[in-house]
Amino acid sequence: MTIPKDIHSFSNPQQIAVTHLALDLNIFFDRLSVQGTVVLTLERSDSKADQLVLDTRLLQIDETEWSKDGKAFKEAEFSLGQDDKILGRALTIHLPKEAKFVRVAYSSDPLSSGLQWLTPEQTAGKQHPFMFSQSQAIHARSWIPLQDTPGVRVTFDARVQTQQGLKVVMAAQRVSEGVYKMEHPIPSYLIAIAAGDLAFQSTGARTGVWAEPSVLPRAAKEFEDTEQMLEAAEKLFGPYRWGRYDLLVMPPSFPFGGMENPCLTFATPTILAGDKSLVSLVSHELAHSWSGNLVTNATWSDFWLNEGFTTFIERRIDEAVYGKEREEMEAALGLQDLEDEIKSLPPKDTILHIDLAGRDPDDGATQIPYEKGALFLRALEEKYGREKFDLFLKGYFDHFAFQSITTQQAIDYMKASLDPNIDFNSWIYQPGLPANAPHPTSEAFAKVDTAAAEWSSHGTLPDAHAWTTHEWLRFLHALPEKLTQKQMHALDKAYSLTASTNSEILQQWLLMAVRNAYEPANDKLVEFLTAVGRRKYIKPLYEELAKTPKGKERAIEIYETARPGYHPIAQSTIDSILREP
Ligand code: BES
Ligand code: ZN
């Protein structure tokens, strides 16, 4: 298998590829550090290569050794390269030709970008600390020295210890307490770990939920359909190949909605709405068990292969479990997000196969790979029919199972198994949307749009008692940007929006409150920004605040208190919004 060059990695897998990791780690909460050793198994393509290059970021390297048999190790010389702001530092280890294994003794830094350390106060139970990793896109290197490119796949085994009374979980198969193994080759960005006061509740034969004890009953209820989602996905796209599918409910500072770590999706607690209205996030992360974890983007420019395919499959799962009406609303909301994003991005960043030269791969994580990617697949589904397209997808997952592929490989496969005449150029290499792009619509939304127009022009409050979360999100989005105090008060009085317990609705309402200087929501805004660290929620709020001098002052004041509770990834996003120009 040829591994493509990845501009986001210093490593040299084209000469020597790592195929397995054996981790032996200790999680030290007092030092905010993960320390231990990793033994890397090597596979040479270049018999003359005399050095192995690994990625690191803020890692302290204590010793490197090499071995022929994985038992007897001898010291190897190493050097660390210049620190690059985006990529970190190359670790070059000098090796004799007969080296088959390398052992690195290391420790992570308290400021490691891939780990977050929470004090007991930042957890639901308030009694125990909590830590977790977030490796995607290029943060695995901040807690394990490795070839940090999705083009390289490794199996691993791990032994992890931590302080008494805490549970360690990893996104892998559990062997025994603190012992895990991953027998399928996976890319580095899917290696994941967490430790805290965690308990488990089953939701089905292969599915279940991990959470802090006080959150567990609520979470298990919210996610009770997970087994059904898994069965629906298998029926459409072939067997689930990872054994168990569990969810880990994170503390509220988790910077993402969800992360598809294999066997164990990490999920924000903000989706615990009480009515399952936000569980499409579970469909999404579960869908990655096929698109992403089984068939993986080879570089971060191919990210749409992960997220576009996943967003398409997410909606197919939702349709199977919750029906066509809900799926239509989700697709229509997706299109709305996509149109907003296309308006706000420079045209070159609306290309699916994005150019990330000199940039952080996280810059590519916009709505484009998700929604434009999904729309492309929807266009193909419409053209070739659902039956044929489903068969194509199943075949694609079988054909590329446990491989990392480029956009070109996906295109070649589509040409061969679907149609050589697909308009790949418009969809994948041109900005914006092709003129004939599908336009998902929803009957329910047509009514909501009318209600929004009626209210805006005549003040007629709609009868919204039966509205779903999706309809509410559509309604709020359909209102004019500028509203009077009277209008804001009227909405809040009629529908108690400031008191909404649905995080999506509340976030959108708070955004409107900031935009329209609606003071009754001030306390709620502070509370929300201090309690929640999900980047998708807090970034637009800080951006909206920063648009006026007074708002920016407030933002800086709130951020001062909130920042220590945010994940390093979220901190750097908000830093760049509020930093003086
Ligand atoms: N894999 C992504 C999260 C991610 C992307 C982390 C890029 C780091 C870099 C995950 O599957 C995802 O897309 N999460 C979304 C939620 C989803 C329902 C769209 C999120 O976190 O908002
Ligand atoms: Zn995703």
> What can be said about the biggest beta sheet?
8 strands, mixed
- Radius of gyration equals 24 Å
Number of strands: 22
How are the strands of the largest sheet arranged?
Answer: 5-4-8-2-1-11-14-13
Return the average pLDDT rounded to an integer: 98
Which percent band covers the strand fraction?
15-25%
Q: Share of helix among residues?
A: 25-40%
Question: Span between N and C termini?
Answer: 46 Å
Bound ligand species: ligand BES, zinc ion
Class from helix and strand fractions: alpha+beta
Low-confidence stretches: none
Shape: globular
Output the number of helix runs.
17
* Oligomeric state as shown: single chain
Briefly summarize what is shown.
The chain has 581 residues and is α+β, with helices and mostly antiparallel strands. It has 17 helices and 22 strands. It has helices at residues 216-222, 226-237, 280-287, 303-322, 324-344, 367-384, 386-399, 407-417, 424-429, 443-458, 469-478, 485-495, 503-515, 522-531, 535-545, 549-562, 568-578; strands spanning 16-28, 33-44, 51-56, 60-67, 74-75, 78-80, 89-94, 101-107, 115-118, 130-133, 153-161, 167-170, 173-176, 179-187, 193-196, 199-202, 207-211, 245-249, 258-259, 264-267, 295-297, 403-405.
